[in-house]
Amino acid sequence: MKYLSVMLLLLSSSVFAEQRIVSAGGTLTEIIFALGQQQELVGVDQSSMYPKAATELPQVGYYRDLAAEGVLSLRPTALFALEGTGRPEVLKQISSTGVTLKTYPKPDSISELNSLITNLGNELGAQEQARALNQKIQNSLPEKSSLTGKKALFLLSANDRGLVAAGTDTVPQMLFEYTGIKNLAQTHSGFKPLNREILAVEQPDFIIAPAHVVYSLGGKDAFCKLPALSLLKAAQNCKLLVMDSLLSLGLTPRIAIAIEQVSEYRNKL
């Protein structure tokens, strides 16, 4: 019996060691690194910006628009794909070559993040590391703040067609709930155009936007001067918190850091 157990353990370790994984989705990549299993990675997508070591791996494009050729060129044994990865025909083409396709739901709550970490830990033979990481996250979370009277918007885009803001069932909404801030876009779920009538009644005390959006438009000052934001006093005074895109849009093991950043900015107002 003891001999059989040893053989099964060796076989299991061998299977895990043989994996060549392409990770499509910054949340997945960050968790794989946090589990200490980055040696299994042979490539990542462009949203995998943390930790820095992830950016040094071969890239296969953006996870929502993968090309089969880029993924297959790395000779992976498995593609770990976050919900929303690629077009169905591309994923089918990749899996038809014998590459194992593992699709994971995008977490929108702490419990879903815990489940994702557990699932990845099981897949990578890192169950103990997964349990430890989940406990670390739980210990790092602050108590949810009561409402502070502060109001804010998280903007994904601002142009002639309007403002696209984070509503309920998003990571920004979670950040607002932990920091006692009223989300003026909580009238809708997900990321959708904001009803301008809302801003005629209430104005945000500040705005949050992801770094890739702000810097693609020329930086903080340029973002605040966008015509689409001209009626917002928060924009006129450039009350803008620019956050790391993955930290603010994807639920990752660094969620406590994201909460702290929003809380600190709120306290400065």
From TrEMBL:
Every copy of the Fe/B12 periplasmic-binding domain together lies at 20-269
Which key words tag this protein in UniProt? Signal
Task: Specify the domain of life of the species encoding this protein.
Answer: Bacteria
Q: Which SUPFAM superfamilies match?
A: Helical backbone' metal receptor
Recorded hits in InterPro entries, A to Z, give: ABC_Transporter_SBP, ABC_transptr_periplasmic_BD
List, alphabetically, the Pfam families matched: Peripla_BP_2
Cleavable signal peptide: 1-17
In Swiss-Prot or TrEMBL terms, this protein is called: Hemin ABC transporter substrate-binding protein
What lineage is on file? Answer: Bacteria, Pseudomonadati, Pseudomonadota, Gammaproteobacteria, Alteromonadales
